[in-house]
Design brief:
It is a single chain. This protein has about 475 residues and is of the alpha+beta class. The chain has 2 domains: about 10-105, OB fold (Dihydrolipoamide Acetyltransferase, E2P) (Beta Barrel); about 130-175 and about 210-455, Bira Bifunctional Protein, Domain 2 (BirA Bifunctional Protein, domain 2, 2-Layer Sandwich). The chain is built from 13 helices and 16 strands. The protein has helices at about 10-15, 65-70, 120-125, 135-155, 215-225, 260-280, 285-295, 300-305, 315-325, 340-350, 400-410, 420-425, 440-450, and strands at about 25-35, 40-45, 55-60, 75-85, 95-105, 160, 165-170, 180, 210, 225-235, 250-255, 310-315, 355-360, 380-385, 390-395, 435-440. The strands form 3 sheets. The chain has an 8-stranded mixed beta sheet with strand order 6-10-11-16-15-14-13-12, sandwiched between helices. A 5-stranded mixed β-barrel has the order 1-2-3-5-4. A 3-stranded antiparallel beta sheet has the order 7-9-8, with no helix packed on it. The chain binds adenosine-5'-triphosphate and manganese (II) ion. Manganese (II) ion binds next to strand 15.
């Protein structure tokens, strides 16, 4: 077979010009479908660069019948052929094959994706193969674009990317149950004299866990670089089997010195609108596919969010609205309760019909580091609530006052020895500052219109599931 430079299918489909026609090109990819008759075969070939496949037209008179039999759905081939204008609908170029090489066959009897239209539940059981479906190709391309968009937004706005640790020695954040990191023998751990597990003999000489958030460390960096962000994996050992929770998920957390709660809200709103606009401008083929296949209102919803201001109100006002709503919620509402997804979605989808930013939550349901309001009851927390998702961002202005922070730490029973380094930022050159955490997969859920968080991360980790 003649060796040619491989063309990317996206380039051929999107940017082939008149003068490119009638040249011999090479494409490589996986066969999505093969159909035809005894004279001609039409192969839809996909290389993942774009949702669309390129059509390969094979004049069977010129090809070995035995080789053609190997080309089935899922097989991987390399094709040389003439790029020509297509007569078919929905594409303007196709390839008339001159040579075909089969890299890998996919036995039609055993290849699980032989047929189209598998359920998302079934595809979760074959997470190692599901990237080959149109749906997961689309989701993974959008996910990539959103990760890139996050870095681009921050870079263009003068933020610095801080790599915060994944193994942490502090469990002060209280964001959820943690996964222990240890090299101790589970059957026979070293014990102290009074029979307790002796972590002093563990790898780090103390108890360590996987991080639930990079925030505390990001705050340290913001006290020097002013505008920083983290973006990495976070872990929560909570046994919540919901369509919005993973045990391992990616979180993006900006932290900005001198920002107060209002600027924090402005940043969150500008940032998330930027990302959705970025998706609309750069992922339209994939979004159109997802819109047509899964969620007919997806594009409308994305455009709506970009073009409308978010509603901003205090927790206390939201409780008022919920109590007067006449709705019968599974979890009853009163001042002081943590809002459940059903409450958040009522506010967003029914009452305001737009994204909502709630602020000033009761201090007892929020973390120790949030700035205390003068009322003595609430803290300067800020949650961004989205249609179909509920909470997509959680953040706050941080308590910068040393004494107030220390008081709160004592009140909540957090050992001072675990957070001495955090307290130091308030002892040396403290400053007002704010930040938030965006759940990356919740963003991808919103942007793709997918309904289950397990379908927007390549290899989901949930209770009882870490196969792939
Ligand atoms: P929720 O109340 O929805 O469980 P949270 O209040 O515990 O979330 P935060 O600690 O505020 O979450 O984390 C910041 C963001 O991270 C959340 O707004 C959400 O988008 C995301 N997030 C939190 N927990 C998970 C999880 N288990 N899986 C996926 N994303 C999560
Ligand atoms: Mn939260």
């Amino acid at each position: 077979m003649e060796i040619l430079n491989r063309s990317i299918i996206k380039d051929l489909l999107k940017s082939a010009k008149k003068e490119d026609l009638d040249h011999i090109v090479n494409v490589k990819g996986w066969v999505r479908t093969k159909r035809g008759n005894k004279n001609v075969a039409f192969i839809a070939l996909n290389d993942g660069s774009i949702i669309h496949s390129i059509q390969i037209v094979v004049d069977l008179a010129n090809f070995d019948e035995e080789v053609m039999k190997l080309i089935t759905t899922g097989s991987c081939i390399s094709v040389n052929g003439k790029l020509v204008e297509s007569m078919g609908q929905g594409q303007h170029v196709e390839i008339q094959a001159t040579e075909i090489h089969v890299y890998g066959t996919a036995d039609a009897e055993s290849y699980p994706l032989q047929k189209k239209g598998h359920s998302l539940e079934f595809l979760r059981e074959i997470a190692h193969l599901r990237p080959r479906t149109n749906t997961f190709g689309a989701v993974l391309r959008v996910r990539h674009a959103m990760a890139y968009g996050i870095h681009k937004y921050y870079n263009d706005n003068g933020f610095f990317y801080i790599h915060t640790p994944i193994i942490t020695g502090s469990d002060a954040e209280g964001a959820g149950a943690m996964f222990r990191v240890t090299t101790m023998d589970a059957k026979n751990p070293p014990l102290t004299e009074d029979g307790k597990v002796n972590y002093a003999e563990d790898f780090f000489g103390k108890e360590t866990n996987l991080t639930v958030s990079g925030q505390l460390e990001a705050e340290l960096a913001a006290m020097s670089l002013t505008k920083v962000y983290t973006f990495g994996p976070t872990f929560r050992a909570e046994n919540s089997n919901t369509p919005r929770h993973l045990a391992e998920f990616w979180m993006n957390e900006p932290e900005v010195a001198f920002n107060e709660i209002k600027e924090n809200m402005d940043l969150a709103e500008d940032f998330i609108k930027y990302l959705i606009k970025y998706a609309l401008e750069n992922c339209m083929d994939d979004l159109q596919f997802l819109n047509d296949m899964y969620d007919k209102e997806l594009l409308e919803r994305l455009n709506f969010v970009v073009n409308n201001d978010f509603m901003r109100l205090a927790y206390t006002e939201a409780i008022d609205i919920l109590m007067k709503s006449g709705q019968s919620f599974e979890f009853p509402v009163s001042w002081g309760v943590d809002l459940q997804s059903e409450h958040e979605r009522y506010l967003v989808e029914k009452h305001f019909q737009k994204p909502v930013i709630l602020t000033d939550y009761p201090k007892d349901i929020k973390a120790f580091y949030m700035k205390q309001n003068d009322d003595g009851k609430t803290v300067r927390a800020m949650d961004v609530l989205f249609p179909k998702i509920g909470e997509i961002i959680g953040g706050s202005q941080r308590e910068e006052n040393y004494d107030k922070l220390l008081n709160r730490i004592h009140e909540m029973g957090i050992p001072e020895k675990d957070v001495w380094w955090y307290l130091d930022t308030r002892r040396f050159g403290t400053a007002p500052h704010s930040g938030f955490g965006l759940g990356f997969e919740r963003l991808i859920l919103f942007v793709t219109g997918m309904a289950n968080i397990r379908d927007v991360i390549p290899f989901p980790r949930t209770p009882m599931n870490a196969e792939f």
